[in-house]
């Protein structure tokens, strides 16, 4: 008697892509707003970007710094190492010196601080383009060089818009609308851009 | 992923399984949209047992508390179990007697948690749920799948409705639909489903929820149109073919 394979999977792939870029005094985080399942689009208006800080603030009596958040996310993911959260994350913010701060993750919590990153179904299309435009100095170099990009905030936002316009052309799971969040010393700013809906 | 889980002994053998493996009695699509005064939702009254249309008076939409309406497709027994969970939730809410009552957002969130937690235990409630409601003038329409994927939108549909009704809604839905236009749009979707979904039955209910409350219509049938010229004398032009 052959053991029957389960015909139900607890996972679904809802698609979508996200990007984050760290600048000298800002951080840009962007993601499309399409939620899919198989060849269907479930909704065109789903936000994949969230703000995280309130519980920490109440317990530690100070704002949660980006590196602290990064560790929390890594622990949360690794906690489910043997039944993972099937989610690919990018964390963006400002570090204690006010410089842009981007961390990139895999599904089980392994993470690294980088100058820019993309995850999701369109990442294979977006990442090489970002490498070409923003190539960071090697982390092996001494003395340690800054990973943040010398681009200005508006240049970085334009770059992100270009990335998604291109990824939308070739990735069926990316499209509908782009949500861009910019963090800087003045606070948080949100911007939207329409993408192709096909 | 699945074979790795078997190696770790996470799946267990089927013979002693106490978990949901397949659905038995199922309901087909639910379609819902936001209109000027609230939410309109439609579902037929069929309960299929595999390929047999076994039950023809299954109510797949129910009012929840004062502000919400729940529609379900998938396993009917799991839907009835969810109604029991929600009965308890609303009972406790009423017992507070504090003038506040659970709105559609809260019920939707509760359902998402229940579905996701069951999915985590590999014992899902085999349903796709549509939750609509109005509270304090705010309209809300959301969906939860059996693995806990949830979202809200101006129009939603489950099962075959995703394939056949959603495109019609994407084309013809607009803000501030009147009640009559909303019903016409829903009936258009349900008619297409009746023609093309083999588990649909021609006996449906349309439910309306507004700030005033929930009204579920008595069951009725849609008119269907088979008088296409191509159906008269179908073999003309190709005698002998099928």
UniProtKB/TrEMBL annotation, chain A:
<dbReference type="GO" id="GO:0005839">
    <property type="term" value="C:proteasome core complex"/>
</dbReference>
<dbReference type="InterPro" id="IPR001353">
    <property type="entry name" value="Proteasome_sua/b"/>
</dbReference>
<dbReference type="GO" id="GO:0051603">
    <property type="term" value="P:proteolysis involved in protein catabolic process"/>
</dbReference>
<keyword id="KW-0647">Proteasome</keyword>
<dbReference type="GO" id="GO:0005737">
    <property type="term" value="C:cytoplasm"/>
</dbReference>
<dbReference type="GO" id="GO:0005634">
    <property type="term" value="C:nucleus"/>
</dbReference>
<dbReference type="InterPro" id="IPR023333">
    <property type="entry name" value="Proteasome_suB-type"/>
</dbReference>
<keyword id="KW-0963">Cytoplasm</keyword>
<protein>
    <recommendedName>
        <fullName>Proteasome subunit beta type</fullName>
    </recommendedName>
</protein>
<dbReference type="Pfam" id="PF00227">
    <property type="entry name" value="Proteasome"/>
</dbReference>
<dbReference type="InterPro" id="IPR029055">
    <property type="entry name" value="Ntn_hydrolases_N"/>
</dbReference>
Automatic annotation (TrEMBL), chain B:
<comment type="similarity">
    <text>Belongs to the peptidase T1B family.</text>
</comment>
<dbReference type="InterPro" id="IPR016295">
    <property type="entry name" value="Proteasome_beta4"/>
</dbReference>
<dbReference type="GO" id="GO:0005737">
    <property type="term" value="C:cytoplasm"/>
</dbReference>
<keyword id="KW-0539">Nucleus</keyword>
<dbReference type="InterPro" id="IPR016050">
    <property type="entry name" value="Proteasome_bsu_CS"/>
</dbReference>
<dbReference type="GO" id="GO:0005634">
    <property type="term" value="C:nucleus"/>
</dbReference>
<protein>
    <recommendedName>
        <fullName>Proteasome subunit beta</fullName>
    </recommendedName>
</protein>
<keyword id="KW-0647">Proteasome</keyword>
<dbReference type="InterPro" id="IPR029055">
    <property type="entry name" value="Ntn_hydrolases_N"/>
</dbReference>
<dbReference type="InterPro" id="IPR001353">
    <property type="entry name" value="Proteasome_sua/b"/>
</dbReference>
<dbReference type="InterPro" id="IPR050115">
    <property type="entry name" value="Proteasome_alpha"/>
</dbReference>
<comment type="subunit">
    <text>Component of the 20S core complex of the 26S proteasome. The 26S proteasome is composed of a core protease (CP), known as the 20S proteasome, capped at one or both ends by the 19S regulatory particle (RP/PA700). The 20S proteasome core is composed of 28 subunits that are arranged in four stacked rings, resulting in a barrel-shaped structure. The two end rings are each formed by seven alpha subunits, and the two central rings are each formed by seven beta subunits. The catalytic chamber with the active sites is on the inside of the barrel.</text>
</comment>
<comment type="function">
    <text>Non-catalytic component of the proteasome.</text>
</comment>
<dbReference type="InterPro" id="IPR023333">
    <property type="entry name" value="Proteasome_suB-type"/>
</dbReference>
<dbReference type="GO" id="GO:0051603">
    <property type="term" value="P:proteolysis involved in protein catabolic process"/>
</dbReference>
<dbReference type="GO" id="GO:0019774">
    <property type="term" value="C:proteasome core complex, beta-subunit complex"/>
</dbReference>
<keyword id="KW-0963">Cytoplasm</keyword>
<dbReference type="Pfam" id="PF00227">
    <property type="entry name" value="Proteasome"/>
</dbReference>
């Amino acid at each position: 008697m052959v053991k029957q394979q389960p015909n139900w999977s607890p996972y679904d792939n809802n698609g979508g892509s996200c990007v984050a870029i760290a600048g000298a005094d800002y951080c840009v985080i962007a993601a499309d707003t399409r939620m899919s399942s198989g060849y269907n689009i479930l909704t065109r208006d789903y936000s994949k970007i969230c703000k995280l800080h309130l519980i920490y603030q109440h317990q530690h009596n100070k704002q949660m710094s980006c590196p602290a958040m990064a560790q929390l996310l890594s622990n949360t993911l690794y906690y489910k190492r043997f039944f993972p959260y099937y989610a690919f994350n990018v964390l963006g913010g400002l570090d204690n010196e006010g410089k842009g701060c981007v961390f990139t993750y895999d599904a089980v919590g392994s993470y690294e601080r980088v100058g820019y990153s993309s995850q999701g179904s369109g990442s294979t299309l977006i990442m090489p383009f970002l490498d070409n435009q923003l190539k960071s100095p090697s982390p092996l170099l001494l003395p340690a060089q800054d990973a943040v990009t010398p681009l200005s905030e508006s240049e970085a936002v334009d770059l992100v818009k270009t990335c998604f316009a291109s990824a939308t052309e070739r990735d069926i799971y990316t499209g509908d609308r782009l949500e861009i969040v910019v963090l800087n010393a003045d606070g948080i700013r949100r911007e939207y851009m329409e993408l192709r809906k096909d | 992923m699945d074979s790795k889980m078997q190696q770790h002994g996470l799946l267990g053998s089927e013979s002693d399984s106490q978990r949901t493996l397949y659905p038995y009695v199922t309901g087909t699509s639910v379609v819902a949209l936001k209109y000027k005064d609230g939410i309109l939702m439609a579902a037929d009254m069929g309960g299929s047992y595999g390929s047999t249309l076994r039950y023809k008076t299954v109510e797949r939409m129910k009012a929840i508390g004062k502000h919400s309406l729940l529609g379900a497709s998938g396993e009917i027994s799991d839907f009835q179990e969810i109604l029991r969970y929600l009965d308890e939730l609303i009972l406790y809410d009423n017992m507070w007697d504090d003038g506040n009552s659970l709105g559609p957002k809260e019920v939707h969130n509760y359902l998402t948690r229940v579905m996701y937690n069951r999915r985590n235990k590999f014992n899902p409630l085999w349903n796709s749920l549509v939750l609509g409601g109005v509270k304090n003038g705010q309209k809300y329409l959301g969906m939860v799948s059996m693995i806990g994927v949830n979202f809200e939108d101006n129009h939603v549909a489950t099962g075959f409705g995703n394939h056949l009704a959603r495109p019609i809604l994407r084309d013809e839905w607009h803000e501030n639909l009147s009640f009559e236009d909303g019903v016409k749009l829903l009936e258009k979707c349900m008619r297409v489903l009746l023609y093309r979904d083999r588990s649909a039955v021609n006996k449906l209910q349309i439910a309306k929820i507004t700030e005033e409350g929930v009204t579920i219509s008595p069951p009725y049938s849609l008119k269907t149109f088979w008088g296409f010229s191509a159906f008269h004398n179908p073999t003309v032009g190709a005698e002998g073919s099928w």
